[in-house]
């Protein structure tokens, strides 16, 4: 059974510039235990979708089922089993770290709250900040606190909206490792948004692209990237680069040259297409010293798709 099922979800905002369909007829399913990435340019509708799924906003229309239950009917019960962390989560700024977490622990009915809080504070290296007021924390420290808050009730489903924003590289890495480990250990389902493509490519099993409120593509990173037609090739020569250039010209492949040693060109992103080209070099006795094939990345896909409009 899928953990989250969304059917024909719509959310419109009225603004000075007229109506904006932030979520425009979105339907999708998130499988139990998967880390599902939601990507899209600024304003695509990702946070609005997460806010609706986590009960912070009500949709205009559409249906949501979480843990197999109608979210509208069983909202309170369902809310006890998931949690949410966003980079901009409203914590009480005048309370201390500990006071904030105790309030949430009460809300979630956490047993052995003190012990649980301390464990998580240590995990995210903010135990020593527990008696400081939230207003005095750095943005990265607040992001860690929001993650601690999100894990208090041992959630079976986590909504993470740009949860690594503001974290230093080391902490961001620890957080990704923790999330992967938590996902593996508990089979927790995770909906994850981020503008860091590399982390999405690495930790998410499936990815959805959102654009102007609509889901325009769903798949795993490999499938999505395959759509990109080009793969970059770099051939290194210690001699004979002139001959190599002639071969590329003969094959009608346009290229650029670097330091009279390296030729750069693009080929179609299909696994076997490079072999006939390399065979030509070998036949004509133009050996190369090194070959680098650069596969397209999710980032390249994202940039290409965003610019196509
Ligand atoms: N409370 C609101 N009132 C009016 N318009 C809103 C509101 N919240 C979001 N919007 C608009 O809805 C659209 C989607 O916004 P949303 O925050 O969901 O995008 P996003 O994909 O999360 O973007 P980002 O990558 O910048 O976080 C935007 O055009 C935004 O201006
Ligand atoms: Mg957002």
Task: Describe this protein's structure.
The model has no long low-confidence stretch (mean pLDDT 91). This protein is an alpha/beta fold and 309 residues long. It has a 6-stranded mixed sheet with strand order 6-7-8-3-9-10, with helices on both faces. Strands 2-1-4-5 form a 4-stranded antiparallel sheet, with helices on one face. Strands 12-13-11-14 form a 4-stranded antiparallel sheet, covered by helices on one side. It has 3 domains: 1-81 and 155-174 and 183-226, P-loop containing nucleotide triphosphate hydrolases (Rossmann fold, 3-Layer(aba) Sandwich), CATH 3.40.50.300; 90-153, no CATH class; 228-307, Alpha-Beta Plaits (2-Layer Sandwich), CATH 3.30.70. Helices cover 36% and strands 28% of the residues. It contains 11 helices and 14 strands. The longest helix is centred in the middle third of the chain and has 18 residues, at 169-186. The protein binds adenosine-5'-triphosphate (ATP) and magnesium ion (MG). Magnesium ion (MG) binds next to helix 1.
Considering the chains and any ligands shown, give keywords for the structure.
Rossmann fold, six-stranded mixed β-sheet, 28% strand, 3 domains, binds magnesium ion, Alpha-Beta Plaits, binds adenosine-5'-triphosphate, 14 strands, 309 residues, single chain
Number of separate helices = 11
Radius of gyration: 24 Å
CATH structural class of the largest domain: Alpha Beta
As residue ranges, the low-confidence spans are none
Q: How many structural domains can be distinguished in the coordinates?
A: 3
At the fold tier of CATH, the topology name of the largest domain is: Rossmann fold
Small-molecule binders here are: adenosine-5'-triphosphate, magnesium ion
The portion of residues forming beta strands comes to 25-35%
Order of helices and strands: EEEHEEHEHHHEHEHEEHEHEEHEH
What is the spatial order of strands in the main beta sheet?
6-7-8-3-9-10
Number of strands: 14
- Name the overall outline: elongated
Instruction: Report the helical percentage.
Output: 25-40%
């Amino acid at each position: 059974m899928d953990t989250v099922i969304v059917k024909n979800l719509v959310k419109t905002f009225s603004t000075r510039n007229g109506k904006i369909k932030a979520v425009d007829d979105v339907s999708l399913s998130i499988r139990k235990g998967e880390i599902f990435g939601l990507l899209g340019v600024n304003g695509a509708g990702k946070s609005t979708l997460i806010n609706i799924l986590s009960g912070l906003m009500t949709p205009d229309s559409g249906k949501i089922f979480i843990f197999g239950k109608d979210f509208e009917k069983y909202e309170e019960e369902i809310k006890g089993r998931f949690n949410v962390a966003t980079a901009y989560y409203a914590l009480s700024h005048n309370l201390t770290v500990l006071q904030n977490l105790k309030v949430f622990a009460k809300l979630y009915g956490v047993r052995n709250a003190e012990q649980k809080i301390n464990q998580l504070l240590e995990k995210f290296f903010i135990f020593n900040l527990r008696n400081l007021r939230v207003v005095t924390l750095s943005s990265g420290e607040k992001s860690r606190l929001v993650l601690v808050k999100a894990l208090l009730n041992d959630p079976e489903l986590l909504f993470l909206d740009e949860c690594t924003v503001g974290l230093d590289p080391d902490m961001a890495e620890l957080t990704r490792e923790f999330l992967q480990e938590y996902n593996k250990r508990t089979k927790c389902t995770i909906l994850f948004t981020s503008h860091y493509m590399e982390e999405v490519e690495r930790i998410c099993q499936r990815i959805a692209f959102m654009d102007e409120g609509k889901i325009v593509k769903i798949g795993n990173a490999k499938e999505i990237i395959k759509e990109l037609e080009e793969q970059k090739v770099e051939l290194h020569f210690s001699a004979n680069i002139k001959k190599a250039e002639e071969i590329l010209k003969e094959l009608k492949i346009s290229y650029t040259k670097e330091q009279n040693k390296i030729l750069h060109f693009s080929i179609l992103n299909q696994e076997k297409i490079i072999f006939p080209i390399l065979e030509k070099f070998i036949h004509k006795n133009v050996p190369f010293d090194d070959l680098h094939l650069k596969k397209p990345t999710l980032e390249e896909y994202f940039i290409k798709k965003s610019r196509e409009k």
